[in-house]
Specification:
Order of helices and strands: EHEHEHEHHH
Oligomer: single chain
Number of domains: 1
Distance between the termini: 30 Å
CATH superfamily: Metalloproteases ("zincins"), catalytic domain
Shape: globular
CATH class: Alpha Beta
Structural class: alpha/beta
Largest sheet: 4 strands, mixed
Strand order of the largest sheet: 1-2-4-3
CATH topology: Collagenase (Catalytic Domain)
């Protein structure tokens, strides 16, 4: 299985390079592997700045604020995605939008590296694309956060 991860850099506030793109692909791939997603996945990742993500947050979630990452899943769950694309090699899962500007701010605030924050946001967003939602209740939040920590550990990226 070979995942298709498309990365669009639509910002100029944070320097990007091939290593960052590789980290994004690795984090997404590890999250899919951890969840045992049964086929190749197609995910679009857009890197933006605070202004860009604020506009998307307003337009799609009616929230007038900057956020770190937005997930736009095409399906309600991983099972639904796999079933709906049963005859295809690849399942399009949706879009991830990350504010690299916000990721940089949070890395400084939390006292860890920018790469760790970016990888974490990718893992977090993939779980959303697969149907997890930490905003639906305390148990869902615990499950999602546990999985995030496990996946980051498998990546060898800890706090």
């Amino acid at each position: 299985m070979r995942n298709r991860i498309y990365i669009n850099n639509a910002q100029k506030s944070v320097k990007t390079d091939a290593a960052l793109y590789g980290l994004i692909r690795r984090a997404i791939g590890q999250a899919l592997k951890y969840e045992k997603f049964p086929k190749s996945a197609e995910i679009s990742v857009t890197l933006t700045d605070n202004e860009g993500i604020k506009k998307l947050n307003r337009d799609y979630r009616n929230k007038e604020s900057v956020t770190d990452v937005l997930s736009f899943p095409l399906y309600g769950s991983a099972m639904e995605a796999a079933e709906d694309t049963a005859d295809e090699e690849t399942a399009p899962l949706g879009d991830i939008v990350i504010s690299l500007e916000k990721a940089s701010e949070q890395a400084n605030e939390y006292g860890h590296g920018f790469q760790r924050e970016t990888a974490f946001l990718c893992v977090h967003s993939v779980l959303h694309l697969l149907g997890y939602d930490h905003e639906t209740g305390e148990e869902d939040e615990k499950e999602m956060f546990f999985k995030q920590d496990e996946i980051m550990g498998l990546l060898g990226i800890t706090r």
